[in-house]
Each structure stands twice: as structure tokens, then as C-alpha cells.
Design a protein that fits this description.
This protein is mainly alpha-helical. The protein has helices at residues 2-27, 31-34, 49-56, 59-91, 97-108, 110-124, 132-141. 76% of the residues lie in helices and 0% in strands.
């Protein structure tokens, strides 16, 4: 049983890490090697020119801006969320659990709400369980 678990974890690790390793190896290849068919598995010669291009450009400013946006988004979320969580935890009663659940679902299920809205629109114009709306959608996409 332990061997099977180890084998499954090893396969999962390889599948998970392969894109990261492939990206790192590809970043060290020249432009010609990146698009070679069949692909070169290892870069020869390895180059850091792509990293030089990124770091010499405007990349540090992009990183700074991303870090500022991330910091302030987290700070605002914590400033609003901690007092709300404290209030829910300290003053919660049995009848308040519905409000807490709806508050939680409004954060976690926003994508589902949009999907439900789309379903309701399709159902109300009597196109659910028909091929008409899927044919129309597919013809618009192609």
C-alpha cells in the first residue's frame, strides 16, 4: 500500500513540476532552440539574454506597482474583514447564521451567480434543453 501511495505521489509530483521545469529550461534557450522541432531538451549553449532583456526594461517598475497594489488590497481587505469577523464571532446568534452564510456565499459563489443568471435568462426565453441556443452560440464563436 505504501508503494502505491509513493508511486501515485511521484507521478503527481512529476506531472505538477514538469511545466515549471520545462519553463525554466526553455528560458535558458536561444530563440532558435525554443522553436526547434523536435525540441531540444537541454539548452546548448545556455543563455541569460532573456533575463537581461526583462530586467533592463521596465520590469522593476511593473514589479513595484504589483507589490503596491497587492499590499494595499490586502491591507484594505484585512481592515474591513477583521472587524466584521470579530463581530460575527462575538455576537452571532442562531438566527444570524443565515446572514453569515449569505455573506460567505456572496464572496465564494460570485462566478456561480453569473452562471445561474445566464441559465435563468436561457430558461425564461424557452431555449433550455434545446439545441437552438447552443447552435447559435457555437456559430457566433466560430
Amino acid at each position: 500500500m505504501n508503494s502505491l501511495i509513493f508511486l501515485l505521489l511521484a507521478i503527481f509530483s512529476i506531472v505538477t513540476l514538469f511545466p515549471i521545469i520545462w519553463t525554466a529550461i526553455t528560458s535558458l534557450k536561444t530563440d532558435v532552440q525554443m522553436f526547434a522541432i523536435p525540441p531540444d531538451l537541454l539548452p546548448h549553449p545556455a543563455t541569460l539574454s532573456h533575463y537581461k532583456e526583462v530586467l533592463m526594461g521596465n520590469f522593476p517598475a511593473y514589479i513595484r506597482n504589483s507589490m503596491l497594489v497587492t499590499f494595499f488590497s490586502c491591507a484594505i481587505s484585512l481592515a474591513l474583514g477583521i472587524p466584521a469577523a470579530y463581530g460575527f464571532a462575538k455576537y452571532a446568534t442562531e438566527k444570524d447564521k443565515t446572514g453569515l452564510c449569505s455573506c460567505d456565499c456572496s464572496q465564494d459563489g460570485s462566478a456561480g451567480c453569473h452562471g445561474n443568471s445566464f441559465f435563468l435568462i436561457i430558461r425564461n426565453i424557452h431555449l433550455s434543453d434545446t439545441f437552438t441556443w447552443t447552435d447559435h452560440t457555437i456559430s457566433r464563436l466560430s
